[in-house]
Amino acid sequence: MSGPLNGLRVFDLTRILAGPTCTQILGDLGADVIKVEQPGTGDDTRRFAPPFIRDEKGEETSESAYFSSSNRNKRSITIDLTKPEGQTLARRLIEKSDILVENFKFGGLDKYGLSYDKLKDDFPGLVYCSITGFGHTGPYAPRPGYDVLIQAMGGFMSITGEPEGEPQKAGIPVADLMAGMYAAVSINAALRHREVTGEGQHIDIGMLDTMTATLSILGLNYLTTGETPKRLGNAHPNIVPYQAFATADGNMVLAAANDAQFERFCAFAGAPELTSDPDFNSNEQRVKNRDRLIEKLAAIIAEKPTQHWIEGLEKVNVTCGPINTIDQVFADPQVKARGMDLEMDHPLTGDNPLHLIASPIKMSKTSPEYRHAPPLLGQHTGEVLKELLDMSAEEIQALHDKGVV
To answer: N or C: which end of the chain has fewer CB within 10 A?
Structure first.
């Protein structure tokens, strides 16, 4: 292994998506991720199906596509944390770990003796990351948090959708994914702090916080003006034209992000008069006169097919492109060239490789490596207990017989 986190170990007490997204990033970067699951049931997302992954005959297996999306580069072990023996076993494994990531409800690990406060004195170098809906402080801390709730409460839904339509969530669980990414970034920063000082620390990631941070330019538009942003559909709040348009045979996106691009677009479209119109000759004016300009542009663009616009505008360096369906994304030559459709061997798929979405991280020296397919429940329990704790087969079997693992 040559990943930048090679040699570091993660004790992974996460499930569903935000936490597993974080630990998959760490695993892709070389960390040894030990995913701890409840015996017999495991991560809830193992049952978030259909679809299930398929074997070499094309038949459904017992593993969900959902679980596979965020659990590669991990080794699965089972421990019943409700049993005292399970809690003792967990602490022994934490002693061998650099990082602990958990997304239990606030206070949920305290009763097992595995909260940060219960561990920090015994393991002062441990980087302990908690991911919850609302963080560990504030009036909402005890509440559970789910992606759609956080998108709603964090304002994301209020700015997503057509102006006259209903508020919309994103088509992907953006609140979970962003929380996982912020957590992974924070863990790497905490590791650097530990490298310098020798001290571990607690990281408190609240999904409502990360969703609020994700408001980005629209959040700043509000804080700057005091005016609540409205839904704009596919349009941009600060740049015009920057949205989808209907063509003669489909749809496309046009993103003329500056005055020079707008001028080149108008020249290609045969409408140079728009650039000399004082209502449209600068981005500031185009934003102020958005509705009139978009009406004119929509009529022009609708006269020609999508390929006419894409081929012609690319030649004059104006940003545009098709609105791809997901099958078209994975068929796109650029996506193929970047290796985003990742194939891995899996114990249930035989000669039929498991298709996963590769990490987007590209590094010249320490790019991600793909060592483990998403694991079966408890697949590595014996392996990990023998490797890390030097337990014998008889000791492991005794724990299994008691229902501890």
So the answer is: N
